[in-house]
Amino acid sequence: MPRMQLERQFAGPLQDTIVQRWCDPVDGTVCYIYLPITAARSAPTANGYVEYGANTIGSISCLESAAAPKPATPHH
User: Fold this and answer.
1) Is 12 helix (H, G, I), strand (E, B) or coil?
2) In what order do the strands lie in the sheet with 30-36?
3) Which residues, at least 6 apart from 10, have a Cβ–Cβ distance to it below 8 Å?
4) In this model, does residue 25 exceed pLDDT 70?
């Protein structure tokens, strides 16, 4: 599975939170993620996945990059 690239990290508005700026290297989409520095989680499963608690702070907001190439519009 491909990964986005972490570009910057900022202090969050609440104690022990951060805002991260991630970029999709293929289409240039930029996402800002607001999350806690630590979060309670389960032990890894046999597949390596973990389960996070439902009461953690977190949100994501994404925008299409202005620098991303736009698809060609067919001319009639």
Assistant:
1) coil
2) 5-11, 17-23, 30-36, 59-63
3) 18, 19, 20, 21
4) yes
Estimate to the nearest angstrom the gap between the alpha carbon of 70 and the chain centroid: 22
Tokens representing 16 are: 């022990």
pLDDT tier at 74, thresholds 50, 70, 90: low
| Cα 34 versus chain centre, distance | 8
Beta strand spans in 1-76 (E): 5-11, 17-23, 30-36, 59-63
CA distance 8 to 30: 11
pTM summary value = 0.67
Tokens for 21, please give them.
């700026």
Measuring CA to CA, which residue among 29, 7, 33 is closest to residue 18? 33
User: What is the residue whose two structure tokens read 């309670």?
Assistant: 40
Cβ-contact 57, 36 below 8 angstroms = yes
